[in-house]
Write a structure and sequence with these properties.
The structure holds 2 protein chains of 2 kinds. By secondary structure, chain A is an alpha+beta fold. In chain A, 54% of the residues lie in helices and 15% in strands. Chain A contains 22 helices and 22 strands. In chain A, strands 1, 2, 3, 4, 5, 6, 7, 8 and 9 form a 9-stranded mixed sheet that branches. In chain A, α13 runs antiparallel to α16 and α16 runs antiparallel to α18. Chain A is globular, with a radius of gyration of 30 Å. Chain A starts with 16 loop residues before the first helix and ends with a strand. Chain B is mainly α. Chain B has 3 domains: 123 residues, DNA polymerase, domain 1, CATH 1.10.150; 65 residues, Orthogonal Bundle (DNA polymerase, domain 1), CATH 1.10.150; 60 residues, DNA polymerase, domain 1 (Orthogonal Bundle), CATH 1.10.150.280. Helices cover 45% and strands 2% of the residues of chain B. In chain B, the strands form 2 sheets. Chain B has a two-stranded parallel sheet with strand order 1-2. Chain B is elongated, with a radius of gyration of 32 Å. The chains are: A alpha+beta, B mainly alpha.
Chain lengths: 712, 320
Amino acid sequence: MKFYAKNNQIINWAEFPMLRISIGFIVGIYINQVCNCTIHVLLATSAIMFLFSIVLYCSRSNSKMRARLLSSLLLSMVLVFGMIRVGLKNISGTPTHANGEVNTEVGVVGKITEEIKENSRFSTVIDILSYDQESDRGRVFVYFSVKDSLIDYEKGDIIRIKGKIITLKDNANPMAFNYKDYLKFKGIERQVFLKEKSHHLVFKKKNSVFTITDQIRNWALGIFNKRLKNKDHLAVASAMVLGYREYLSKELYNTFSETGAVHVLAVSGLHVGIICMIFIALFNRWRNDGPLYKSIQFVVLLFVVWSYALITGGSPAVLRAAVMFTFLLIGRLWFRGANIYNILAFSALCLLIYNPYLLFQLSFQLSYLALISILFFQPIIERWWDTKHWIFTRLWQLTTVSIAAQILVFPISIYYFHSFPSYFILSGIAAVFLATFILVMGLMVLAFDSVLLIGDWCADLYCLLINLFVSIITSIQNLPFHSFDQIYFSQQSLITLYLGLGFIMFLINVKPRSYKDKLYTKVKRIRIAKVVILSCIIFLLVNNLAFSKRVRNNQKLIVYDIFKGSLIDVFIENTVYSMQSTELDSKKVSYAASSYRIYNGSKHFEELSLLDSIQQSSLKVIDTATLLFKNRYIVFMDKLDLVHGVIPCFSDILLVTNGTTQLPYDFLKVHTAVKVVLDNSLDYSVRNKWIKECKNRGISIHDIRKDGVFII
Amino acid sequence: MNWFWDNILLKREDRVGLLLFCFVLFIFLAIKWYLLVIYDPTEGRASTQYSSNFEYTSLESQQVRKINNTTYSPPPKIKDQKEKETNENFSPSYSEQTKRFEFDPNTLSEDSLLSLGIGRYAASNIVKYRSKGGRFIDPSDLQKIYGLDSLVILDLIPYVQIKKSSKSVKSSYTYASRNFTKKPEVALASIHLNRADTTTLMTLKGIGPVYAKRIVKFRNSLGGFFSIDQIGEVWGISDSLFQAIRPYLSVDPNLFSKKNINEMDKTALVKHPYIDWKKAKILVKYRKMHGPFKSIDEIKKMHGIEPSFADTLAFYFEVQ
């Protein structure tokens, strides 16, 4: 697709009327997320704007000013609507009562909106209906008591619970994944830990569209469970065909994500497209151009697409694909086809009107970026090589799709995941090519399940197919240098990169068509674009230099905030010395610390043990309980019993960590500390004793549970 | 500035379209705003004050119960302090204006309905519904009443107590009692399956009159239980319920009389739950061809009958 800009326009807006509207809406959502305006004011503003624009529209004058005014008014109105929509969403998440923080137990009636999950304890999410007999709203994360061994509620049941409802805690560690924000954009802002037996059923669920789709999904899962004996096969099949990811093991998921093929495990536009293609192919068998036939085809395709979207759980990518296909089909049926960018923009607008928080969800961002990237870059790259043989043509197409998709996706995926798969082309070809077969075969397994023999054959063949897929992906993972790890990307460089990419896209589009164009505006703008791209590259380089300089001068000690555990990292240049309590599992550690380690550019990892001797300019082990760091004596309280009888008499920083039960009274009589750091692993009573004693002696305290992480 | 205007300017038809789109969006947002901010579903309900602490003691509840003697049933007996606490946990906040008591919507008078916190309009609708021949069979049938607030219904449901029918009162099934009353603790392995009657069985948690009856019926048709696991075969008893009651059961396999397999014809055999038509046919045919069974082990040798099944039959049949 080519679109040449006219006059002073960035792109030719007239061809994509929806584009500006969607951009306005998105900007509105961002603005209100930052400044949070009052809804009443915004509504009144939009009403006034609306009336004014009607007056302008009806006025007879035909001046240039009127057109300009009306256009800007309408566009800014869309922006205000975006602000209102996200404001309304913010309201619907917060309770009407101010008792979010009150420390009394309240009775809450609510509807279960997610399947019950079982980890160490059962948990689910409920939509509040009433709160102490008054109507209320919002969502609550419910954790059932550990003692309740069996919770057999279903999604859609209405239950009554009783407990203290508290707001979610902020994540305390620097750079770590912000779970609170993540849940907020899913509409959950509070949680409750129930005591034993403080919940009961009010209504059994009623049948609705969603229960039917759930039933279909459970039926299909049952068949897969019966047919596929291998656990990995079952996980891949249920994730790819049904969008059910509970069976996926951590290792399998890592294999896929490290090779860059993880996107096929989440049901997305690719899958919806394949399903749609199958049905279109079926329809083309009986080619007929009558209007009735066309409408029947339209209705059937629409039904298939939407029921598939609902069965697979309605993730943003699937919803996007379903909305897009709906409009594509409408365009095909009633109009002379429609512009794909327009449909893309309109589907984004529809989804954001439905739920503006989608904008902040990674799956939404990735889905749209990938599609824009494929639509824009794929035709350009495809033109680079012109093959004659059909096999090479197909292969080249698949390759270009994988390359094109990565162009706009890689900055954001590196920003979030800090790694980049190096063989993404290989895995991309395998994934897209085999995903088609796996999806089709999966549907065949489901269809022929009850047929004798054919059902068995299908299942056997299906196992082989999935086996092939998994082994290809695993062998790609086993190749040397399969991924670049530990890449740090700051927010500035992310924005700069997208700015640069945007101008590159602009540059590709703007081609001077006539001599006149060349002489005046076009050349000037191409020059501007080139300058901007160049300055973006320079900025990135400078940023990178600054980062490596920061790493070279890096000297930091950090005590993380981890519940019931302690983790201490010492960063020196690109090495991290780490000390952790023994019972801490690796999941908690990586959750708290991995991002910060990447932020500090740490390439080498070493256990910090005070039994070894480390002699560096800034880090020295003095004895088994004392460390000299940046010319400060740091004493570890929990290691003191290893020093037989000798207690150091002075410390700059006294770390009371690792769940130690030693009390301050006798110790502080013989020891002078400048600062005491209390970790989150300490028991409540021990911590209180330390705080009290330190206050008596006038020693400054850093309590990690209250003051956050400790960094020097 | 020209640059700015060129990027902002809309085509004539786009302007019209966008104006219409804005109109629709504005109405949508305004409705959403009204529902979220202005509209209050609790409006029109009897105004109620809610006390923050839960003071629903058993004494008060008894007093309340006495108000409507039409559906008076003895309150659940509270044995010790612990049970009392769990009972209190679930009583919602209680104030003087609205009273909560167990009631039967099929018989309760309009005044008492009002005192429950049901609005006048909804209460009169309930009376109308009954006078037209409507009946509440399930607590959730309250949702059928027009004008009755859904939140009130959610609160009232634990207190709804519906008598099955005035003529044949078999059991007073109480929704609340199902959830809130604890049956007296039963000692482990204290219920002898082959001796227990329905009343004894009903002391078990999770076993009501229906299940108890089914168990006894199953026992009678079998001739007796030889293993606790057979309780799981009673129709309707789920695995979780079976696992829950299992520790309290015990069984004495010598307690029942065995039947003589040689004297039974096809119809008599089929009455036994473990023998279907096919097996009865095989048994009778075998007897016809080989003469009466000499020992019960002979069944094992028969074609078409699994050895494990033959072992089971050995508990119920003998050869004379």
